[in-house]
Amino acid sequence: MVALAALLRPGNAGANTVADHVAVLDAPIAQLPGEIWAGHHGGDDSDEAGRPLVPSSSGPTRPGGPRGSLAACRARNVGFYV
Description:
- The chain is mainly α.
- The chain is built from three helices and no strands.
- It has helices at 18-31, 34-37, 67-75.
- Helix 1 (18-31) runs parallel beside helix 3.
């Protein structure tokens, strides 16, 4: 497994913010070739998604992050396990 994105935050940043999780979700999607990332941007039609994407989350925060992160996955036609 390879880390495709990380986000350094200031020491006073709150834990598990939705905005941070969404930024880290969007960064690796943007790195994928066009035929793979098509259909995986916020609001894209699920019929446009040619391949399934299922990100992996680990680290000091609880797996998957806040509920808003899961909504962001759904909006991007990205699968997840909780």
